[in-house]
Amino acid sequence: MLAKMTDFALFREPHATHALRYVQTQGEAQSLPNYDALNNVEGFVFAPFTISDECPLLVIASNRVEKLDATAHISRLPQSGNEVPTEPNNKEKQSISTSYQQCFRSFHQELMQARFAKIVLSRTEDVALTHAADAEQLFWRACQRYPRSFIALVCTRKAGTWLMATPEVLVQNDTQRWHTMALAGTMKLNAEQQQWPDSVWNSDTLPLEWSAKNKEEQRLVARYIGDCLANLAYDIEETRPYTQRAGGLVHLRSDFTFKLKPAYGLGDLVKTLHPTPAICGLPKAEAWQFIIENEPHCRRYYSGFCGPVSANEGTRLYVSLRCMQLSHHKACLYAGGGLLKNSTEEQEWEETRAKMETMLGLMLS
């Protein structure tokens, strides 16, 4: 059920065979004033795209930690699929909405005038529910369908109920070394490609051809992250771009590992990296402000970040992508795409549709 008297986060790491539930048994999730406050926290962090009174930066305390067998829960899922009520408006599915057309032209005009090198335009789509969805069942179905993604179900009194299946790491650490990634560019797989075994995806000679637009988008993100890390870190290593699968989509990805300079902590790193160009744009500050002022919806916790933070267990924060907010009467889906000068309205609309399929597929399967 969606109604919970206790704030919690249920999450499963990529490829893991178990999930963890952090339950805050006393009070509500803590609201933090800014990213600097992350330097000294423990628990599950749930951050919005932009911190505000309506959408605070939250930390769910791990007063109680439950370890759950993912394989066992998945085996108990109904074979007929999840009977979640209705489909989105058919007209909107078939044609580009007027709202999106207007936004695309407004955002693209800024690119043509060279105000931005890249900017991300997102949109929402509502799915009407005839009754409340079983959020935890949707979580386990996401674990089943997307083994390569970070799956999280977050339920708090301040933020509501959110489910996500994201492929993108914001930042992680392993002993003294940290990790982040540049993930950008999107391509939808056809039916045959979706059946390729993992051995194909792990190969250096993947038989997929990326467009110039996708390659340039990934280069912009990688260059930005490299510049950010130069101020905070040392011993920085960067991989060549490669293809990462996420459900029925693939993205271009390059990895960064580094050591953080002694004067800096998690809050400093997050403040520098978030929002990455993959979900915002370049230059960052100007693109961030333009999105806030010109997108017709508030992104809320979509394209924020989330994950566990612990001095002993380490930090694993992910960008909140492929997500939806659940309520008793609807599921609100969020998706976006990176616009460059050569972007087209039709291609970008199709990209958002493909990304929304990640969550929509859980309800219609």
Automatic annotation (TrEMBL):
InterPro entries: ADC_synthase (IPR005801), Chorismate_C (IPR015890), IsoChor_synthase (IPR004561)
Pfam families the record matches: Chorismate_bind
Root EC class: isomerase
Residues covered by region (Disordered): 76-95
Keywords of the record: Isomerase
GO molecular function: isochorismate synthase activity
E.C. numbers: 5.4.4.2
Record domain Chorismate-utilising enzyme C-terminal: where: 99-355
Catalysis performed (reactions): chorismate = isochorismate
PANTHER family found in the cross-reference section: ISOCHORISMATE SYNTHASE ENTC (PTHR42839:SF2)
Family in the record: Belongs to the isochorismate synthase family.
Protein name per the record: isochorismate synthase
Organism: Hoylesella shahii DSM 15611 = JCM 12083
